[in-house]
Amino acid sequence: MYKRFIAITGSVVLFLGLGLTRAIAQDQSSTPPENPPQGQPPQGGMAGGRGMRGPMNPDQMLARLDERLHLSDDQKGKIRSILEDRQASMDKLRSDTSLSQEDRRAKMRTIFTEHNDQIKQVLNDQQKQEYDQMMERRGRMGNRGGNPPPPPSDSQTPPPNPQL
Fold first, then answer.
1. In this structure, are residues 142 and 47 in contact, taking their beta carbons and an 8 Å threshold?
2. Cβ partners under 8 Å of residue 93, min gap 6
3. What predicted TM-score, i.e. pTM, was given to this entire model?
């Protein structure tokens, strides 16, 4: 009798555990990732313990740049403004349903490149070198940050980006 009770209890626990695991997995896959309030970097992008949930917000990106480039307060203010403008431009483009996926990608690349050029204008020569290395590493990582990579040279065609 005791063995039967243990077997039934074990089966019930296993059944409930599997059901709960499935429910959690469905909930996580069915809800789109939300952008957290500006601050900590729990989302997408370059590494450092974040998941693959999307692009960093301007504060997260600024924190990452400051960590790598040791920005002055003046640089932080200028770069924050550039990053906020980039995010607004990207958000507006993402909500434009009249564009084809290819056109949207091309415009995102243009926005990304233009804003990167603006950021580089704020940096000193040493910071520009490190920033270029960061962007190169980012491109090699397969664009895990959610933002489009810089446009390819004339001799290459852009790889497809399944994230869009």
1. no
2. 99, 104, 107, 108, 111
3. 0.54
Distance CA 97, CA 124 (A): 39
Q: What backbone torsions phi and psi does residue 6 show, to the nearest 5 degrees?
A: -60, -45
* C-alpha–C-alpha distance, residues 83 and 62, integer Å: 8
As a whole number of Å, the end-to-end CA separation of the chain is 58
Closest CA to 159 of 115, 107, 110, 105: 105
Count the neighbouring beta carbons within 10 Å of the beta carbon of residue 68: 14
Residue 88 lies in a domain: yes
Q: How many whole angstroms from its chain centre is CA 159?
A: 18
Domain assignment of residue 28, yes or no: no
Give the other-Cβ count within 10 Å of 25's Cβ.
10
> Containing domain of residue 131, as a range?
58-140
Whether residue 20 is contained in a domain is answered as no
Is 12 inside a domain boundary?
A: no
The confidence score (pLDDT) of residue 159 equals 53
Compute CA 164 distance to the chain's CA centroid, rounded to the nearest angstrom: 12
17-21, 38-42, 137-141: which is most confident: 137-141
The whole-number average pLDDT for the span 31-59 is 52
Query: How many domains does the chain divide into?
Result: 1
